[in-house]
Each structure stands twice: as structure tokens, then as C-alpha cells.
Amino acid sequence: MSLDLRPVQVRLSEDAYEALKMLADANDHDLGEEAREILTEILLGKAHGIKVLHERLSRAVKTDKVR
Does residue 25 come out as left (phi exceeding 0), alpha (psi in the -120 to 50 range) or beta? Predict the structure, then answer.
């Protein structure tokens, strides 16, 4: 299955770059592949958290208005 991937360019601090390089080496990935996996996991996780919080706040506001 082919994914439609959007290009993104970022700059990393030296420490972050070295950490990415270490993880890529440990997982036998190139830097781009490792960065893509890490960013995807973190971004989707954070977005999910925001959606859940939004749903909870929406229910709380609706509940308070009914009282």
C-alpha cells in the first residue's frame, strides 16, 4: 500500500539530532523514516488527547446548561 506523504522540513538541535540518529541506527531505519514514525506517533497521540478533552468539555458544558 502506498501512502500519500506530505513533505515537511524541520531543524533539530544537536542533541535532538544525535538522539534521532541513535534511534534510527537501533531500529535499522534512515533518519527520515525514524523521524516520520516518531512524529506520526506523537502528533496523532496528542491530537487524540485534544479531541477527547474537547468531547469531555463539550459534554460538561451541555450538562451544566441543563441544570
Answer: alpha
Q: Where are the beta strands (DSSP E) in the chain?
A: none
Confidence of residue 8 (pLDDT cuts 50, 70, 90): very high
Does 64 score more than 90 pLDDT? no
Residue 54 has pLDDT above 90, yes or no: yes
Could you tell me if 30 and 24 are in contact, meaning their C-beta atoms sit under 8 angstroms apart? yes
Predicted TM-score (pTM) of this structure: 0.75
What's the CA gap between 10 and 34, in Å, rounded? 14
Please give the single-letter amino acid code of residue 61: V
Q: Is 61 exposed, middle or buried (0-12, 13-18, 19+ CB in 10 A)?
A: exposed
